[in-house]
Design a protein that fits this description.
Elements (H helix, E strand, L loop, with lengths): L3 H11 L6 E10 L9 E10 L2 E7 L10 E4 L4 E4 L1 E6 L22 H10 L1 H10 L2 E7 L4 H11 L5 E5 L2 E3 L13 E3 L3 H12 L5 E5 L8 H17 L3 E5 L3 H9 L4 E2 L10 H10 L2 E2 L5 H9 L7 H6 L2 H6 L13 H8 L8 H12 L20 H11 L4 H7 L2 H7 L14 E4 L13 E6 L2 E3 L1 H9 L5
Parallel strand pairs: 1-4, 1-5, 6-7, 7-8, 9-10, 9-11, 11-12, 12-13, 13-14
Antiparallel strand pairs: 1-2, 2-3, 5-15, 15-16, 16-17
Helix pairs in contact: 3-17, 5-6, 6-7, 7-8
Bound molecules: zinc ion.
The site of zinc ion has 4 residues, from loops.
C-alpha cells in the first residue's frame, strides 16, 4: 500500500520550491579569511538552505529557486556572523555583579542581582544576536553555565555558546560564592585534577585557569598547578584557557599547555620566547582591550553609551548604568567615591596594543573578545568598542573582521566563521561597508543564525516590552 501523504511530501520537497531557503541577492560578500582584493565579491548571491550555506556566487550565475525567502542585497554587505571569544553570562555588565571589586551590597544585594541576571538570560541572548554576534565563548562561570549553554541550545533566538565552568583559581573570591561559585581557589595539582574531573562530567568546551601571580607567589609551584589542570583537561579532550596578563605568567601558562590566552599581555613587550611558545601550542590570543576601561568609566560614573549601545544593548542594563547619579554618597564603595571625585581618563594600554600587533604579525591567531559582563562592558554591542580599539593597534578593518569571524571560530570550535558552501548559516547583512570603517559592522540590516532570520530592532523591541528597569 502506498502512503500517499508521505509520497506527496516527498514530491513537494523535491520541487524547486523552498520554504526553508533564504537567498540574499546581489550583495557585496566579504570573505574575511581571504586577503584583498579576493576578500570582496561584489554583486553576489548567497543561498542558504536549512541551517547551512548552500551556495555563494556571482548573482548572474546563481539562480534563486521559486519559494525562497528573497532578500534584496543591492547596496548591502554580507559578512559571517560575528564571534565574541570571551564573555561571561554570570555577569550583566552593570555595577552590582562584582562585589569583590566594588561592593554595592548595601544598595543592591549581590544575590538579588544574580537572580535578576539569571531571569534575564533570554534577553541577554537576544542582544547578542541583535549585535550580529552569532557565537560566543563563555570562558568561565558557575556550574550554572552548563544550564545556560543548554538554554541557548534550546532557544532559536540565541547565539551558539561554547562554555567553561568554574575558574580554577590561584586566589579566593569569597564574595562571589553563593553556593555555586564562579571562581574556586585551588592549592595543589591534586585539587586541580579533582575540580577538572567534576567539570569534565559536564562536557565543557574549555577548562579555564585564573592565573593570578602576586608578589611573593612561587611561579614554579603555580605553573605546576596549571600543568596538572592542562594535562587533565587534555586527557579529557578539552582545551585549556588561561587568564595571564603578565609576560612571565603568560609564558608559564604556555609552557604548562595553554591553548588559549584569554587576555593581552600588558605589563611588558612580548618577546621571541613568548611567540615561539604560542606557536608551538598553536595558541589563540584574545586581546580584551576595552574591559579595563569599562570598569574605570563605570566606577567613576563617566560611562556613556555609544551610539550602537543605545540601539542594541539591553535597555534594562543601559538604564542601570546611570544609577550612580542617584545613589547616596555614604552607601558608595570607597574606591567608587574616590573615582567619582577624581575621574580617570581611560585609554587602551599602549603595551597591549603593541603586543597585539606583534602577535598578529607573527601569525598567531587573534580572536576578538570583549570580556562582556564585567562592569561597564555590556553584552552585545561592546564588540563594536573592542573592534574600534583593535584598529588602534594598526589592524585593518579586514584583519579585525577576520579576528571576529574566522579566528573566533577556532575558539568556538564549530563549523562557522566564513561564507563557504557547507558552513553553518550564521550570516550578517549590513547597510554599510565594514571594510571602510569597523563601526559599520553595527549597521545591521538582518542577522541569520543557524538559517533563521532576525531583525535587530524586533529583537530589542521584544525585550523592551518585557519591562524597562
Ligand atoms: Zn573574563
Amino acid at each position: 500500500m502506498i502512503n500517499w501523504a508521505l509520497a506527496a511530501a516527498l514530491i513537494l520537497s523535491a520541487l524547486p520550491c523552498r520554504a526553508d531557503t533564504i537567498a540574499i541577492v546581489g550583495a557585496t560578500v566579504i570573505h574575511p579569511e581571504r586577503d584583498l582584493p579576493a576578500a570582496v565579491a561584489p554583486n553576489s548571491t548567497v543561498i542558504i538552505k536549512g541551517n547551512r550555506i548552500e551556495r555563494v556566487g556571482p548573482a548572474s550565475s546563481t539562480p534563486v529557486l521559486k519559494g525562497a525567502t528573497r532578500i534584496d542585497g543591492r547596496g548591502k554587505w554580507v559578512v559571517p556572523g560575528l564571534i565574541d571569544a570571551h564573555v561571561h553570562f554570570f555577569q550583566s555588565g552593570n555595577l552590582y555583579m562584582r562585589p569583590d571589586v566594588a561592593d554595592f551590597n548595601a544598595v543592591v544585594p549581590y544575590a538579588k542581582e544574580v537572580e535578576r541576571n539569571k531571569a534575564r538570560l533570554d534577553a541577554t541572548f537576544k542582544v547578542w544576536l541583535a549585535s550580529g554576534v552569532t557565537s560566543v565563548v563563555d570562558i568561565g562561570g558557575p556550574f550554572w553555565n552548563f544550564e545556560m549553554r543548554d538554554a541557548a541550545l534550546a532557544s532559536a533566538a540565541a547565539p551558539r555558546v561554547a562554555v567553561a565552568g568554574p575558574l580554577i583559581s590561584m586566589i579566593e573570591r569569597a564574595k562571589l560564592d553563593l553556593g555555586d561559585p564562579p571562581i574556586i581557589k585551588i592549592g595543589s595539582p591534586d585539587e586541580a585534577r579533582a575540580l577538572v574531573g567534576r567539570e569534565l562530567e559536564r562536557k565543557p568546551d574549555f577548562i579555564k585557569v585564573w592565573f593570578i601571580h602576586q608578589p611573593g607567589d612561587e611561579l614554579a609551584a603555580q605553573e605546576a598547578i596549571v600543568r596538572a589542570t592542562g594535562d587533565a583537561a587534555h586527557a579529557g579532550g578539552v582545551r585549556l584557557a588561561v587568564h595571564a596578563t603578565e609576560l612571565v605568567v603568560a609564558k608559564a601558562s604556555l609552557r604548562a599547555g595553554a591553548d588559549f590566552l584569554v587576555h593581552s599581555v600588558e605589563d611588558e613587550p612580548i618577546d621571541d620566547e613568548f611567540l615561539a611558545l604560542a606557536k608551538k601550542n598553536r595558541a589563540l590570543y584574545c586581546p580584551t582591550l576595552f574591559v579595563v576601561m569599562g570598569y574605570r568609566y563605570a566606577l567613576s560614573n563617566t560611562w556613556q553609551p555609544t551610539e550602537a549601545e543605545r540601539r542594541l544593548a539591553d535597555p534594562q542594563i543601559l538604564a542601570a548604568m546611570r544609577d550612580l547619579d542617584q545613589l547616596p554618597q555614604d552607601k558608595l564603595p570607597e574606591r567608587v567615591a574616590k573615582a567619582m571625585a577624581n575621574p580617570p581618563q581611560p585609554k587602551p594600554s599602549p603595551i597591549a596594543l603593541q603586543n597585539l600587533r606583534k602577535v598578529w604579525d607573527a601569525g598567531i591567531p587573534v580572536a576578538m573578545g570583549t570580556d562582556a559582563g564585567n562592569i561597564g562592558t555590556l553584552h552585545g554591542p561592546s564588540v563594536f568598542r573592542e573592534m574600534q580599539i583593535m584598529t588602534q593597534a594598526g589592524l585593518t578593518p579586514l584583519q579585525v573582521l577576520r579576528s571576529a569571524t574566522t579566528n573566533g571560530a577556532k575558539a568556538v570550535g564549530q563549523d562557522v566563521g566564513s561564507l563557504r558552501p557547507g558552513k553553518l548559516a550564521d550570516v550578517v547583512i549590513l547597510d554599510a561597508d565594514p571594510l571602510a570603517d569597523v563601526q559599520n559592522l553595527s549597521r545591521i540590516h538582518r542577522v541569520i543564525k543557524d538559517g533563521k532570520l532576525f531583525a535587530p530592532e524586533e529583537l530589542i523591541r521584544s525585550i523592551s516590552a518585557k519591562g524597562g528597569t
